[in-house]
Specification:
By secondary structure, this protein is mainly alpha-helical. The protein has helices spanning 5-23, 26-30, 56-70, 87-98, 128-144, 148-163, 197-223, 248-280, 286-310, 317-349, 355-386, 389-392, 398-421, 425-466, 469-477, 483-493, 498-522, 529-549, 565-591, 604-609, and strands spanning 45-47, 73-79, 104-110, 115-120, 613-614, 624-625. It comes from Streptomyces chengmaiensis.
């Protein structure tokens, strides 16, 4: 074959492939086969046919339970079919693509014919015989009745049982939709024109590659200065090796910094978005809302990975490295999405063009909040007198911090007013932006005091539902107490049905999450990754509890008839504990904070602590207001 003949051969093969493609009936390529997939380690449930529906939270609880008890991570994948493979082959290929490890298990389910395949590493504590036992006893009976969620729950509980030396039991069966995701084609039976597409493509591609390789070899031989290949006068080109990987400790530090920086950027962007939405409306700010929501989802996933890394069961080094790299990648993607709309967001707000009106609105809010300071301080005083110190501890310093933010906002507004009078709209806009951020945090701190008072009063009102009359009277006659702490203990000690305990438990969890969130937001320059991670996990567990329990009118948690009140209660209590630990760590971070100082600048220290303004990048330059978008470079 000559060098000019090879391209002609390639063109001929490509023409053959094109003809095969166009001759294939549309029905053959309208329903592609379900090829093995590469799993994301953070997502243990992949449901491509919507087999689980509203029972996915129950499956997630079972997977978490298996991990907590046995430190095994079970991945569950639902597809329509196994693309002509056996379930075992499909699962093995998916595990290979996903680089699953010794502490991972994979359950793959094909909904079209109710088959499953399972995989465990050779070094797994689960033996092949145990996998088969769980499959026969706990998975297949559920699949025969189209109980897709039951199959996964049965698998998780079955694997835990065999490792504990207990008998494997068949799960309670809840029949579901017979063929979720069906109707897309004729299934896998039979052979038609569409079945020939893959063989033709493989053969044709191989021929094309071979023809191209021959032509390339001919041309390379013709252009060499020495016809003896790798002998003297010519050597094969040296391909660059893989990039050197950073040390694991360095990657871990980078992941922690990425979480903190991206979380700060998300919080700042959310505050800026709230100001813009109040002024321009939801429709005008929709693209920015979507960007902030996307960043929040990426952060939630990244924090979930961080929590898995920080738990008491360390992963092997390759797995740890992959998880750290994914944390950095998710933070980077969140930053990219915020940055992508940051310029448009700046044009929407355009404070330089409307500085006088924005300044007037900020001054009005400043006056309102200044008047509320007296009320906030009085409310905090009442909490201190009425309840135990622990009850008001989460908001103990909020009045002082709010006053500090107002002090800074007032100074910024004075400077903005002067700049506006001098027609310096750029400076006026910068100072107004800083004032708005400080006012927003001042309002948040004051509202937290009011909310805490309402939470304590509500908790005190719920105690009689859980305590005897004598116990209630004893509480009232004793020294000041903490109603939320008392309610928490009452829930833990109560032997009542879990359904009746959901609402009081949820009150405590919401109060703990709100307290931690307020502190982290308004002191974020001091807060490390651990407190932020625990807060994110607390929110995730509370959201899972909502899915398990359902919500009734007025926000009361009722536990629907298809829910799992016991699991929901456990998730709620877990959320409460995580949030309280997040607040404890955040408070410790704040106590140890030694940030930049600027003598003579009114309230600047508090503004720096709260992330309202960012430290100057060069000596002698003033701090700049934080803006919508990813972390500054």
């Amino acid at each position: 074959m000559t060098p000019t003949a090879a391209p002609a051969a390639v063109r001929a093969v490509l023409a053959l492939l094109a003809a095969a493609w166009w001759l294939t009936p549309p029905a053959a390529w309208a329903a592609p086969a379900e090829d093995p997939v590469e799993l994301n380690r953070q997502r243990q449930i992949v449901d491509r046919v919507d087999a689980l529906g509203d029972r996915e939270p129950a499956v997630a609880v079972a997977l978490d339970r298996l991990f907590e008890e046995q430190r095994l991570r079970l991945f569950v994948v639902y597809v329509r079919d196994f693309s002509g493979r056996s379930g075992q082959e499909w699962a093995e290929r998916t595990a290979e693509l996903s680089r699953l490890g010794e502490r991972d298990i994979l359950l793959a389910v094909a909904s079209a014919d109710r088959r499953h395949g399972s995989w465990a590493d050779e070094g797994s504590p689960l033996a092949p015989a145990q996998l088969a036992q769980v499959g026969q006893t706990a998975i297949d009976p559920a699949l025969r009745e189209s109980d897709w969620a039951g199959a996964a729950i049965g698998a998780a509980d079955g694997y835990a049982a065999v490792l504990s030396g207990e008998p494997v039991t068949t799960p309670a069966i809840t029949p579901g939709e017979a063929d979720p995701g069906g109707g897309a084609g004729e299934g896998t039976a039979g052979t038609g024109a569409g079945d020939l597409v893959l063989p033709i493509a493989v053969i044709g591609s191989a021929a094309a590659v071979a023809a191209y390789a021959v032509a390339r070899r001919r041309r390379r031989t013709a252009t060499r200065t020495t016809p003896q290949g790798n002998q003297a006068g010519w050597s094969a080109p040296q391909l660059p090796g893989p990039p050197e990987q950073p040390p694991l400790a360095e990657l871990d530090d980078r992941a922690r910094r990425s979480l903190v920086e991206t979380d700060d950027a998300f919080r700042t962007s959310g505050e800026e978005l709230a100001l813009a939405a109040a002024r321009f409306g939801a429709e005008a700010t929709r693209p920015f809302t979507e960007a902030v929501d996307f960043a929040e989802a990426e952060l939630t996933s990244a924090f979930r990975l961080r929590q898995q890394l920080d738990d008491a069961y360390p992963e092997d080094e390759p797995t740890r490295r992959r998880m750290l790299e994914e944390i950095v990648a998710r933070c980077t993607e969140a930053d990219r999405r915020l940055d992508a709309v940051a310029e448009d967001f700046g044009e929407l707000r355009a404070l330089e063009h409307d500085a006088p009106a924005v300044l007037a609105a900020a001054e009005e809010e400043y006056g309102e909040l200044s008047g509320r300071m007296v009320t906030a301080e009085a409310a905090l005083g009442v909490l201190r007198l009425r309840y135990a110190p622990s009850a008001s501890a989460p908001v103990a310093g909020h009045a002082e911090q709010a006053q500090d933010r107002l002090l800074f906002a007032g100074a910024c507004l004075d400077e903005a007013r002067q700049a506006a009078e001098e027609e310096d709209r750029g400076t006026a806009a910068v100072r107004v932006r800083a004032a708005e951020g400080a006012l927003s945090q001042g309002r948040q701190l004051m509202e937290a005091i009011d909310r805490r008072g309402q939470e304590l009063a509500e908790a005190a009102g719920k105690l009689p539902e859980l305590l005897s009359q004598a116990e209630v009277e004893g509480r009232l006659q004793a020294a000041p107490y903490d109603p939320l702490a008392a309610l928490r203990r009452a829930v833990e000690a109560s032997g009542r049905d879990a359904r009746s305990l959901l609402d009081p438990a949820a009150l405590g969890a919401r109060a703990s999450i709100a307290a931690a969130a307020d502190h982290i937001t308004t002191h974020r320059a001091a807060i490390g990754s651990r407190a932020r991670t625990l807060l994110s996990e607390a929110r995730r567990h509370l959201e899972r509890a909502r899915g398990l329990a359902g919500r009734g009118d007025g926000g009361v948690w009722t536990g629907g008839k298809d829910g799992d009140p016991q699991a929901a209660l456990a998730e709620t209590q877990r959320a409460d504990a995580l949030a309280r630990e997040a607040l404890r760590l955040a408070t410790a971070d704040t106590a140890g904070y030694r940030g930049p100082v600027a003598p003579g600048a009114a309230g600047l220290g508090g503004a720096l602590l709260g992330g309202v303004v960012l430290p100057a990048t060069a000596e002698g330059r003033p701090p700049v207001p934080a803006r919508f978008g990813g972390p500054p470079p």
